[in-house]
């Protein structure tokens, strides 16, 4: 029997609750409300009760002590419209379906063996990016665009192997980036349909319609690729020019074979395969690119830190060598820079909303079943009780004890990838790619901002939180020979 009170919180207005008072900078507003009402508080948003948690100990209660209760999502209607009803890993409710697709993804695409098998694919893409950039020495480039396209190509290669389909898929990177931006924008603004179920069928803001339109666009890309691959696996392929995948099966092949298996405990459909592709292509690309951009912005803002990390690269990689993925474990200072950037600028400042499957007590208060529970990681990462000089960029703080700091969500003061059962499923790839891209950018070039410009570190809130102004920077010559990236 749950008898504790609901958490405290601001009153809001009748019917609409706190909805009209929501700010565009939600992460900051949620942090200020914690200063006023304490680390756990409630907001009524229309018909929906929302509880925000703002401290490491409260995070621990929901993602460790009571993780089973808090392992379902509270999906936005817009997200369901995009993912054929929530069939992807990110939005699927906790249960056998989610467990199966997450397991397939982690085991077949991101296990140590799979990542070793795709080592050269990642190397090829990063080296290609560096060669392209070399031809742009002295001109201004947009960092997040470069990082996005590199990551997109890596992911497409890992999905489709060295095939013609992979080449086709890679040719739509720029269009896909625009699509991902639009999707993130739609998911980041409050949608009346989420807070007043009775109004949902009217789709007042037109968000659901727009998402369905984008979903059709995605179908237009994935359907022909999947059809072509299905024909190929039946031996009717149109794979020309010796590009056919050799040896090991790529991830798409594995998924399509699972679809054909009649004995599978949880059968997987074509729609579910597409939803899973969305997880990988949307969940993986913009987050990675955003983090690369934040790190470069912090380094351009602090030239002494940039200099120090370039010295580390010169020392570990050598000025006569190009960066390889195997250098990564030795780049301790770069690793500390990444962690410090993840602390100050977590890509998902409020993670992904959770929905408890039963009422429970957290921080001494009742959280009723089906409440929207938000973990304010941005506040936790800047809590003056947990961090010395919390708003300063000091990578050294992560060098003192490396074992304590990883991305696995075991230290509740530092949760850039979340924690518990719903922790990011892509950590092994994200960690590799953010570091590999940055090491290559920083080792191959020196960087400066265009004449008369200043580095601006302000944020624009969104489900993925980006810089408010895209970072534009100019690469200049550093390594004498680009043959290293041939
Ligand atoms: C720097 C890059 C990345 C960051 C910062 C990041 C962060 C996150 C966060 C915070 C969550 C939600 C965790 C929670 O609610 O507790 C998440 C979920 C997820 N991420 Fe990532 N992610 C990154 C890259 C990737 C990549 C590369 C992939 C796939 C290739 C990926 C796939 C996923 C999936 C599938 C989920 C849903 C997990 C679930 O609900 O079970 N992410 N990510």
TrEMBL record:
Taxonomically, the superkingdom here is: Eukaryota
Q: Which cofactor does it need?
A: heme
The answer to whether keyword Calcium applies is no
| Coiled-coil features, chain-numbered ranges | none
What are the protein's UniProt keywords? Heme, Iron, Metal-binding, Monooxygenase, Oxidoreductase, Signal
Positions of heme binding: 424
Q: Name one GO molecular function term.
A: iron ion binding
Regarding protein family, the annotation reads: Belongs to the cytochrome P450 family.
Protein's name in the database: Cytochrome P450
The source organism is Rhododendron griersonianum
Q: Lineage of the source organism?
A: Eukaryota, Viridiplantae, Streptophyta, Embryophyta, Tracheophyta
